[in-house]
Amino acid sequence: MLTPIRNFTATVDYWRIKIDQVINNPDPSILINQCIFTGQFCNLVRRDPTNATLWLPGGSITATLQNLSRQDTSGVDFGASYTGRMGALGGYGVLFNGSYLLKFEQEPFPGLGTFDCAGYYGGATSCGSPNPKWRHKVRGTWATPWNLDLALTWRHIKSVDHFGLNPSPLLNSVALGNGPVPATDAHLATRDYIDLAALWNINKTFSLRAGINNIFDRDPPIVSSTAAGPSVFGNGNAFPQTYDALGRLVFMNLTMKF
To answer: DSSP labels for 2-43?
Structure first.
């Protein structure tokens, strides 16, 4: 933590998380490609004995849950805050929190090789939900002398690309197996959200809190069901765990202390 001047603090934190023997479903496309080009995992691929296809009822690919290889992700978190006074107008504060994703490497099977999902999304067992390289939140507050506190927040999420545009041959082979990446799925644009909140301490008993999230009603990026993947990653052709799926949200609540 750094405190170069009064009322100002800053932090920089490096983090890394490595998980071995991740439990997941292997990607069927990777199984097929590895069987064709390397001869591996062919025991998991069963063709229909009558026409040699992979389609049901006679054809199938065994992709049950198992201990796969590893995930290795790292990044840098930044934080800063400053508070001050404006004389008779009360006090103010500025808070900044940001995170930069350095890498999000995954290895589907031991010895198969790794691919980096930082800045990419998509594929049920590839990159999954969006992994933006940068995101931040900036919050400005004003404690007025009239028992009213105001806060204005800016949330930023950097753009991401479809995993089929990743330079890794592993991901390219999976994506191309489903055809070219649709133009609607190729890029999820940057999203910026502005929120406003207020807290009015009416007296020692009652307080009123109200606000508007996503003031400008920014819609989430829309993708095809293929890119969104199963409900654990995508829902309604969007990624509600990453973006605001409901649009503008107005809220108000009254609190009584006794």
So the answer is: B--STTEEEEEEEEEEEEES-EEPPPHHHHHHHHHHT-TTGG
Q: Where are the domains of the chain?
A: 8-23+71-170+179-256
pLDDT tens readout for residues 210-228: 999 999 999 999 888 666 5
CA distance 227 to 181: 9
Buried b (16+ CB within 10 A) or exposed e, 146-176: eeebbbebebebbebbbbbbbebebbebbbe
Confidence band for 178, pLDDT divided at 50, 70 and 90: low
Q: How far is CA 205 from the centre of its chain?
A: 40
What's the token pair of residue 11? 């932090």
- Tell me how far apart the alpha carbons of residues 210 and 252 are, in angstroms, rounded to a whole number: 4
The H or E element that residue 119 is part of is none
Spatial separation of the C-alpha atoms in residues 63 and 19, rounded to whole Å: 20
State the pairing for strand pair 23-24/91-107: unpaired
Question: Helices in 201-255 by DSSP H: which ranges?
Answer: 225-228
> How far does Cα 102 stand from its chain's mean position?
14
Residues in the chain: 258
Its pTM stands at 0.83
* Inter-axis angle of helices 169-176 and 28-37, nearest 10: 110
